[in-house]
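Reference record
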Amino acid sequence: MPSPTTFRPFLGVTIGDPAGIGPEIVAKAVIQEDVRAACRVLIIGEAEVMRRAIRMCRLDLPVRSITSAAEVTADPGCLEVLDLKNIDTAVCPPGVLAPHCGRAAVEYLNKAIDLAIAHELDGVVTGPLNKEAMAQAGFKYDGQTELLAARTGTKDYAMLLVVGRMRVLHVSTHTSLRTVCDKVKQTRVLTVIRLAHQVLCDLGSRKKRIGVAGLNPHAGESGRFGREEIEEIVPAVEAAKAEGIRVSGPFSPDTLFHRLRLGEFDAVVAMYHDQGHVPLKLIGFHRGVNVTVGLPIIRTSVDHGTAFDIAGTGTANPHSLVEAILLATKFVHRRRKSTRGRGE
């Protein structure tokens, strides 16, 4: 355990959709010894939902309901919940999709964002939110990433997936395959390459080598299978090189991720959601972390959904959330070190 003088980041952890596995994995994750040693945690959600989750997971922990971040004591003997009191457990049974649960989950996220913007939290770690429930509640966002960007007024942002030392950023995410080609434009590809470089700096990467995936099979094969590489991706790569960024590509997607795993690159820029998600989830399904880069606040998340099919059984695996919390603490420490280095 750290000494009393050791800085431990103060993180807000949202429970996500109260009908999903979020409350269960939060209960399991925040009591892990490595999590307790690394940071202080404020759970943001509904106290009664957390009490139910604790019973489902057969844990023996009291829940302390608090009304502000300032009340946190970091007592390892209980779970401290910033209780928004916005949902009744009687109307949110586990595993049932409902708009009021989607609304509650968004309110937890918004509260966490507000606290982070006000510097009452060092970072935010989010539990899984169900996109359909959120949409039914009237929130027209494709996911938490887009909501975070809108809430913080962020224009240039990207989704980053992390599994160990493998890092993949995405040019496009929650969009149909028919519209992906319309989103692979030079300006957007260059923006994501820049964000990849910045996140490697934030993580303390020494070489900062970035590989860029092609959009088409064999990276277009000199225009035989599509011209997006020639007209959009190559110009973005060349522009990034001119800025001093260590980037190369586009490479055939069917070999690039193998090269990433072997350590030839420190990050990869993928063109669309499944191009980046499939290889990383295959390699480390329970270890993946979702990071929103480009925001003025630190935000990490689990890399899975609400899993309504197992919600309420107490069997959900908390490893992704544990990894998300530990990665958030790493970002906080790196940001503090960078700020001190600039004399701020």
User: Anything to note?
Assistant: The chain has a mean pLDDT of 93. The chain has two domains: 1-154+314-344, 155-294. Residues 1-154+314-344 form a domain with the Isopropylmalate Dehydrogenase fold (CATH 3.40.718.10).
